Amino acid sequence: MNGSIEEDQLGVGLIGARGYAGRELLHLIARHPRLQLEFAASRSLAGRPIGDSMSAWPGDDLFVEATPATVADRDADVLVLALPTVSRTNTSR
Ligand SMILES: NC(=O)c1ccc[n+]([C@@H]2O[C@H](COP(=O)([O-])OP(=O)(O)OC[C@H]3O[C@@H](n4cnc5c(N)ncnc54)[C@H](OP(=O)(O)O)[C@@H]3O)[C@@H](O)[C@H]2O)c1
Predict the structure, then answer these.
(1) What's the topology of domain 10-81?
(2) What is the mean pLDDT of each run of 10 residues along the chain (93 residues)?
């Protein structure tokens, strides 16, 4: 997350990183040779080390809050939303 991104790598911004799908994606990104984490956003874990939640995380990166400024500053190539599915009963038409 802190290093410079190589030309053949994709920088990933992950929103909803605390959840089940988010944690699985963090494991995948950590192992993938062409993916680099630009930021991992979690409202409840913002400011805390990713390594506190994932013992195998390679580095001292912190979870961040997904503000518009954070997303713009990190310049990710791709954003992944690991957010809960919205129930149809919660949507209004
Ligand atoms: N669980 C499974 O077995 C599974 C399997 C395959 C696919 N999926 C799919 O993956 C997606 C995520 O599921 P999940 O089980 O990983 O969900 P989850 O465990 O509930 O985690 C959701 C994440 O999104 C964040 N979040 C929740 N509401 C938010 C909001 N309004 N704004 C910003 N962030 C919000 C959560 O809180 P924080 O911001 O506090 O971190 C958390 O990090 C769903 O579409 C689900 O269908 C899940």
Answers:
(1) Rossmann fold (3.40.50)
(2) 74 96 95 96 97 89 94 93 83 58
Q: Ligand 1 pocket: which of 83, 85, 86, 91 to mutate (most atoms <8 Å of CB)?
A: 83
Neighbours of 29 (CB within 10 A): 20
Pocket test for ligand 1, best of 14, 20, 54 (most atoms within 8 A of CB): 20
> What is the residue extent of each domain of the chain?
10-81
pTM: 0.88
Centre a 10 Å sphere on the Cβ of residue 63 and count the other Cβ atoms it contains.
23
